[in-house]
Structure prediction request, 129 residues.
Amino acid sequence: MTAKRILVVDNEQYIQEVAKICLETVAGWEVLTAGSGKEGIIQAETHQPDAILLDVMMPDMDGIATFEKLQANPVTKQIPVILLTAKVQAADRRRYAQMGMKTAIAKPFNPLELAAQIAAALDWSWEKP
Prediction:
């Protein structure tokens, strides 16, 4: 099985690094990072990741606006998006699901559980390498 490619879009460098290290180490996935919604859209178009982890609260273009642009683009429309957010109330989860997002993972997240959470949300069979 080929390794999954995940794009992490978050304006916080620390979150990018933690997610990258954990997903590469725990799951053996390839991880790309972007520091803004605009950069994330370019990365998604260029590299066609298997999934996108997207922060909600970012300057300039927030995660919701970024998601809408990804959905409007035929090249990136089919890529599943998982939100990384501090806002994970039941009402927020319903709204995200109605928009077409796979799930929302609460920040702060447990780095050692992140790969399993992503795999579960996307119905990927997954075993630690």
